[in-house]
Design brief:
Essential component of the PAM complex, a complex required for the translocation of transit peptide-containing proteins from the inner membrane into the mitochondrial matrix in an ATP-dependent manner. GO terms for molecular function: adenyl-nucleotide exchange factor activity; protein homodimerization activity; protein-folding chaperone binding; unfolded protein binding. It is a single chain. By secondary structure, the protein is of the alpha+beta class. It has a domain of 59 residues: Nucleotide Exchange Factor Grpe, Chain A, domain 2 (Roll), CATH 2.30.22. It is built from six helices and six strands. The strands form two sheets. It has a three-stranded antiparallel beta sheet with strand order 1-4-5. Strands 2-6-3 form a three-stranded mixed beta sheet, with no helix packed on it. A hairpin with a 2-residue loop joins strand 4 and strand 5. Helix 1 packs antiparallel against helix 2 and helix 4 packs antiparallel against helix 6. The radius of gyration is 54 Å and the shape is elongated.
Length: 256
């Protein structure tokens, strides 16, 4: 602002001199105005370069003053704090120190409590996952062994199918043999059921690809398409998991 005022004063002074010179020479007003404009154009650029320089310097000084003010405030705060501490009695200083320690311990206790709760939650989740894994391993530990036993169950069925009804009725020895094989088969299947192994006999049910294996299709007008009408080999499940699908024949849709 000061520099701009000086520029305007210089311009006015030069214009006044030109006016007086023109007046003495009886010059026209248009000439006077042109002379004043020329003076302004010659003086303003050089003056404004000085303005830019002084503005940069002013910004630097302002920033330095701000930094100095912040430092002074910080030092004043520390000095005030020291002064306050100096004005406290020994008992008040002790109480203040204890309060600071209490706040620090309270914060530490809060953090430790949060960590404890998180650890407990993680441990409980681990317990649940471990429990499920153990139960799963327990439920399906017999899967391989059960599959091997299924062939023996099938052989009991093949042996019973080999007996002809008329032969069983005619011979007491054959009838007793048939009865013994049937009882052995029943006991064997009962033992399998005790350990979670159940027979899957889907005769008359709707075909389920998750439990059944279709070996052939035959159209039958008296039955719904997709119905199991023949069981070639029964299936088995272990704790509701299919360990061997049943091989079946299903009714074919005539339109397909």
């Amino acid at each position: 602002m000061r520099t701009s005022t000086m520029i305007l004063r210089g311009v006015a002074r030069n214009a006044a001199l030109n006016v007086r010179a023109s007046a003495m020479a009886n010059a026209s007003p248009m000439f006077l105005r042109a002379s004043a404009a020329a003076v302004c154009r010659s003086q303003v650029p050089s003056r404004f370069s000085g303005v830019r320089f002084y503005a940069d310097e002013a910004n630097k000084e302002t920033q330095a003053d701000a930094n100095a003010g912040a430092e002074s405030k910080s030092s004043e705060g520390e000095a005030k704090k020291e002064e306050d501490n100096a004005n406290l009695t020994e008992e008040q200083k002790t109480i203040k120190d204890l309060q600071a320690k209490l706040d620090a311990k309270t914060k530490e206790a809060s953090e430790l409590k949060d960590r404890l709760l998180r650890s407990i939650a993680d441990f409980r989740n681990l317990q649940e996952v471990t429990k499920k894994d153990v139960q799963k391993a327990k439920d399906f530990a017999l899967q391989k062994f059960a599959k091997d036993l299924l062939e023996s169950v099938d052989n009991f069925g093949h042996a019973l199918n080999a007996f002809k009804p008329e032969t069983v009725e005619k011979s007491q020895e054959i009838s007793d043999l048939y009865t013994g094989v049937q009882m052995t088969k029943d006991v064997f299947e009962k033992t399998l059921r005790k350990h979670g192994i159940k027979k899957l006999d889907p005769l008359g049910e709707t075909f389920d690809p998750n439990k059944h294996e279709a070996t052939f299709e035959i159209p039958q007008p008296d039955k719904e398409p997709g119905t199991v009408f023949h069981v070639q080999q029964v299936g088995y499940t272990l704790n509701d998991r299919v360990i061997r699908p049943a091989k079946v024949g299903i009714v074919k849709d005539p339109e397909n």
